[in-house]
Design a protein that fits this description.
Helix content: over 70%
Order of helices and strands: HHHHHHHHH
Number of strands: 0
Mean pLDDT: 85
Radius of gyration: 24 Å
Distance between the termini: 54 Å
Shape: flat
Length: 233
C-alpha cells in the first residue's frame, strides 16, 4: 500500500482536530474545568520561574511515601477515599434526579448532603480546623458550628431520612461525635488516642459511604423505573 503524501494527510489531521475541538466544547463543564486547571498550572509554573521557587511547587505534588515505613498513613488514605465517596455519589445522583425531578425531596436532600459532606471533606483533607485553631479560633467553636449545621440538616430532612435505612447514618454520626470529642480532650495515650479519634472516624466514614451508596442506588433505580413506565405504551 502506497503512503499518502504529507499534504494529503494534513487536511485529515486538521479535520480530526476540528471534530475533537467541537466535541470538547459541547460539554461545557469539560471545557471550563480543563481550562481552569491549565490556567492554574501555568500560573504556578510562572510563579516558580519568576521567583525561583521550583522546589516549593514540587512539594505541591510530592508523594508522602516513607520507604522505611510504607504503611505510614495508609488508614488516613483510606479515610480520605471513603470521605470523598459519598460527596461524589450524592452530587452525581442529584445531577441525575434534577433532570426530571428538580424539586423532589430526594434531589434536595442529596444536594444538601453533597454540600455539607463536601465542606467536612475539605476541612478534613486540608486541615482547615487545625489552621483556624492555630490562628486563634477555638476548636470548640468550630465544632459547635459544624454540630449546628448537622442538627439543622437533620431537622430539615428527618422525614425523608426516616423512609431510608438510616441506621448506618446514625452510627456514623455517633462515631464522628466520639472522634471530635477525643480530639478536644487530647488523650495522652497515643495508641488509644489514635483509635478513639481516627479509628472511630474511619468506621464512621465507612458507614456514611454505605448509607449514601444505598440511598443513591435506590433513587437512581426508582428514577429509571419511572422513566421506563412513562415510555411504556
Amino acid at each position: 500500500m502506497k503512503h499518502l503524501p504529507l499534504f494529503n494527510k494534513i487536511p485529515k489531521f486538521s479535520n480530526s482536530l476540528e471534530r475533537l475541538k467541537k466535541h470538547f466544547f459541547t460539554v461545557p463543564f469539560l471545557a471550563v474545568f480543563n481550562t481552569l486547571t491549565v490556567l492554574i498550572l501555568v500560573g504556578l509554573s510562572a510563579y516558580a520561574k519568576l521567583n525561583n521557587q521550583g522546589d516549593g511547587v514540587e512539594r505541591l505534588f510530592s508523594d508522602p511515601f516513607n520507604f522505611w515505613f510504607p504503611y505510614e498513613g495508609i488508614l488516613t488514605g483510606v479515610s480520605e477515599v471513603l470521605g470523598c465517596l459519598p460527596v461524589a455519589i450524592c452530587a452525581f445522583t442529584f445531577g441525575v434526579l434534577r433532570q426530571k425531578e428538580p424539586g423532589s425531596r430526594a434531589a434536595i436532600f442529596l444536594f444538601f448532603s453533597a454540600l455539607l459532606l463536601g465542606v467536612f471533606y475539605l476541612d478534613d483533607r486540608f486541615r482547615m480546623t487545625l489552621i483556624l485553631s492555630q490562628l486563634g479560633i477555638s476548636k470548640k467553636l468550630i465544632y459547635l458550628c459544624y454540630g449546628s449545621a448537622v442538627f439543622l440538616y437533620g431537622v430539615k430532612f428527618w422525614r425523608y431520612i426516616k423512609t431510608t435505612h438510616y441506621l448506618p447514618l446514625v452510627a456514623a454520626l455517633f462515631l464522628f461525635a466520639i472522634s471530635r470529642l477525643e480530639d478536644i480532650l487530647d488523650n495522652p495515650n497515643q495508641g488509644l488516642h489514635a483509635m478513639l479519634e481516627d479509628g472511630t472516624k474511619l468506621l464512621g466514614l465507612l458507614n456514611l459511604a454505605l448509607y449514601f451508596w444505598y440511598v443513591c442506588h435506590h433513587e437512581v433505580w426508582r428514577h429509571l423505573q419511572q422513566s421506563a413506565d412513562r415510555r411504556a405504551p
